[in-house]
Amino acid sequence: MPVSQTFTQGKIFSPLIRFALPVLLALFLQAMYGAVDLLVVGQFGTAAGVSAVSTGSQIMQTLTIVIVGLSMGITILVGQRIGEKRFRDAGRAIGSGIALFAAVAAGLTVVMILAAESLAVLMHAPPEAARGTVSYVQICSAGSIFIVAFNVIGSVFRGIGDSKMPLITVAIACTVNIGGDLLLVGVFRMDVAGAAVATVAAQAVSVLLSLLIIRKRALPFSFSKKDIRFDRRLIGKIVKLGSPIALQDLLVSISFLVILAIVNALGLTASAGIGVAEKLCAFIMLVPSAYMQSMAAFVAQNIGANKPDRAKKALLYGILSSLAVGVLIAYVSFFHGSALASVFARDAAVVSAAADYLRAYAIDCLLTSFLFCFMGYFNGCGKTLFVMAQGIVGAFAVRIPISYFMSRIPGVSLFMIGLATPASSVVQIGLCAAYFFWLAKKAKRPGTVRCEA
Q1: pLDDT of res. 254
Q2: Organism's domain of life (predicted)?
């Protein structure tokens, strides 16, 4: 059976770029999808509303990150089966993944709705924004089934080498969300609740329309309703591959939530400022994030086909091309942060605080060109436990301690707190490089499927 795109033959750089571009566009639209809520509330609401959407969306982003990380188990497993030309097994893996994530969605809906108020307290949401934060989280959590389905669809198609279908799903969601925000927040003045309702509605429409599109497309494997079942062996493999990524992403996201909580304690302006900056960071990190997802799919197929040398060359090409773009983005973020922040907020103090935080993130733009490509490479190899370990070290041994230490300095700026992020990236890159060369030294013979460098 033909696959949507094979990465195991021919050139390396051009197929990698062609695959990464739709991933990049999808991530851009997804970032827009999340930023529109803050943008519209910032233009039609108050600083309290901005803070509520900022804190609430960060909580929901943490949930989404876990789902994306766990669903990477599907991407890796399907990609490896495609590389091995075991197409029937790829279909079974997808069916088991659907069954697994249906159960996950049901559990998340109940847990998140009940925990919304506690999470707002835990996040130190400013008193003026506490009620709005709870409302945002509860409304979005009611649509957990759509959040899960939205991301599982993307993971499946990236695994088979198709990055265009995920782009279609997120484009639909982004379009509906923009319209919903303008209507509910801008016209009906529903403020935070309106932004949350628009978010859920957009995901629901996207999933439903995407399923209609998928039904009319030919898939590169045999798949039927009978495949949607709890196959313990396949679910075990998905969880084994995806859970370390999910746990690492969760803990890293928690570290950023801790930083947000630290900054929230500094006052409403700082809270709103870091909220605006974090939304902008979603755009700033688009290129390395796109390479991380693309690298995982590319490497997984080549490891399945027993072609580790192609995977290593893809890593090199990914780092160099990502770094070339990272230099430009770093320049804009460092020297023109105020212009970027003014898109999301009108309050001069909030804009200034956001720009200050962005200067630190500009440094990280250069570092993540290396780090994210390494992470995608190791994920594609199935070395997800290492990816989890280095992420945890960066988050809890570097990022949080430095952020907390900086916050205790009288009159501290958000730039100083933000330096914790590039500091953790330096440590993580060192760990990745050491692991890469340790594998090279350990390898007893070239051309193995163990992903030794």
Answers
A1: 79
A2: Bacteria
Give whole-number Cα distances, 284 to 149, 344, 350, 358, 360, in Å.
Answer: 26, 15, 19, 9, 12
87 neighbors 160 (Cβ within 8 angstroms) = no
Q: State the amino acid at position 211 in one-letter form.
A: L
The model's pTM is 0.73
Taking each helix axis from N to C terminus, what angle separates 384-392 and 420-442, rounded to the nearest 10 degrees? 150
What six digits make up the tokens of 223? Answer: 């798949």
Position 439: which residue type? L
